[in-house]
Design goal:
Layout: H1 15-26, E1 30-40, E2 45-54, E3 67-71, H2 80-94, E4 96-98, E5 106-109, H3 121-132, E6 136-142, E7 145-150, E8 154-158, E9 161-162, E10 172-174, E11 177-179, E12 186-187
Parallel strand pairs: 3-5, 5-6
Antiparallel strand pairs: 1-2, 1-4, 2-3, 6-7, 7-8, 8-9, 10-11, 11-12
Length: 188
């Protein structure tokens, strides 16, 4: 969940205030659509908090890049059960075909954390790498600034600068095939 000092001020805030503060920060660099609907592979209707697309896509490898973001108030993630449910929810969104976007990478905000009673830092690193295989990353303020991070240490984007996003397409894999943003266009 990132560094506690970054979100202590949200202790008594509602999830909506938490998400709005993050979306305001992102609005300088990204176009934002809130409450976007989609259909999960099981046929269930889903709705994610927001989908962001870069205002300037010139440095991105994937010119159709978009990220879904699921927000949770940090005060709601105080137990292992709620933390793993949040992870599962993000994985479900990665298997959701969002209207006008298709299958996209998902970001959790805040970053994932695990109850220290049941885990250590190695456990959290392993979880983050595992979640990366489902194209689930994290959005947080880090020592590099406002950052999109995958697999613990891959900084895709930070404070307006595309880093590993220049090299990573971030397209959804299904078996041995990669889907573009529009799932009807399959690349071998």
């Amino acid at each position: 969940m990132g560094r506690p000092e970054n979100y202590l001020k949200y202790h008594d805030s509602y999830e909506n205030e938490f998400s709005e503060s993050w979306l305001n920060k992102l609005s300088m660099f990204f176009l934002i659509e809130k409450q976007v609907s989609g259909i999960h592979l099981t046929g269930k209707k889903m709705r994610i908090d927001a989908i962001i697309t870069p205002k300037d896509k010139s440095d991105w490898k994937n010119k159709d890049i978009a990220f879904g973001i699921e927000f949770k108030s940090p005060t709601k993630l105080d137990r292992l059960h709620s933390q793993t449910n949040f992870m599962r929810q993000c994985v479900d969104y990665s298997y959701t075909d969002f209207k006008n976007f298709g299958y996209i990478p998902i970001l959790s905000c805040p970053r994932f954390d695990l109850d220290k009673t049941y885990s250590d830092n190695k456990s959290l690193t392993a979880f983050r790498h595992f979640l990366n295989s489902f194209q689930v990353g994290e959005l947080d303020y880090t020592y590099r600034g406002l950052s999109i991070i995958f697999a613990e240490h891959h900084f895709i984007w930070e404070d307006g600068i595309v880093n590993e996003g220049k090299h990573w397409s971030l397209k959804k894999n299904f078996g041995s095939k990669k889907y573009r943003i529009c799932p009807s266009l399959i690349v071998d």
